[in-house]
Structures are given as structure tokens and as C-alpha cells.
Amino acid sequence: MDAKTGLRRPALDPATVPPRTTSGYPTEAMRAVTNGRAKRPLGDTLGLTTFGVNLTRLEPGAASSLRHWHLRQDEFVWVLEGHVTLVTDEGEQVLGPGTCAGFPGGTPNGHHLVNDVGARGVPRGRRSPARRRRGLSGSRPPGAPDAGGLALPAQGRHAVRVT
Fold it and tell me: 19, 76, 92, 125: most buried by Cβ count inside 10 Å?
């Protein structure tokens, strides 16, 4: 039982999950894109293995990831607070509280969220069995348009809170 909230598993207060502010991107230039992003790995904390859930906060100017897409895994984003710009191959649009977006696996549509103003949300998605065995979440996108087409580790599933 959590002494602060009185909750016991399988319930938890997302605020009790420490945020992760690091990135797995290989270069400083790539990591700079996500400076100001804090992800609380809710799914990992609860022991979920077939899909991931992160509560992500984007400070002004931060992006959720480099633009990317997944070969097999679906991705779902739900904006809880604030406004973010969803950038896809089709262009840009603003998402606000209560709006969501979905990206079917295997659809080559590079996407990410940028906090031009400030937001918070929850990304969710399925994990591939091979990556679960290696202790990794997400999938390797076959294309990351803003990284010169490099295949980079996925950054997770997102709910977004803008600040």
C-alpha cells in the first residue's frame, strides 16, 4: 500500500511514479529534441508487458520524440491538459484537452508532438514479443524522417500534459 495515497496494486497515483527525463537517442542533437520531456512509465510500474503506457509532460519547446513510425505496433496519444502540435507527414494540427490520435502499425506516417505552448498526455501502444524478451518497450521504427531515415528505438506510448 502506498502510504501517501492509501492505494494498493493494481491501482496507483501517477504522481508517485518518478519521471524519466533521459532519451535513448544516440546523438546530442537528437536528444536535444526531447529536452523538457518527462515520462512517467505507468505501464512498466504496474508490470504491464503487452502494451506500454506513459504519462508524458512536455515543457514549452519540447517534443515527444523525433518524428517516427512503427512497423508492427499501434500507437495512441490522448491529450489530458494543454495544447500540443501534432506533426505528421500530412502537416500540423493542434490537439487540445480530451483529443486523441492513433497511428496503426505498418503505416509509414512520421509523427510526433511538439509543445508550442505546454501539454500533458498519455501515450499507449502494444509491445512486440521480441522487444519484451530483450527488456525494451515499443518497436524499432522502420523510418524516422527527422533523423535522416535512421531506425531508432521507439520512445513509448503517450498521454501528454502541457505546462
Answer: 125
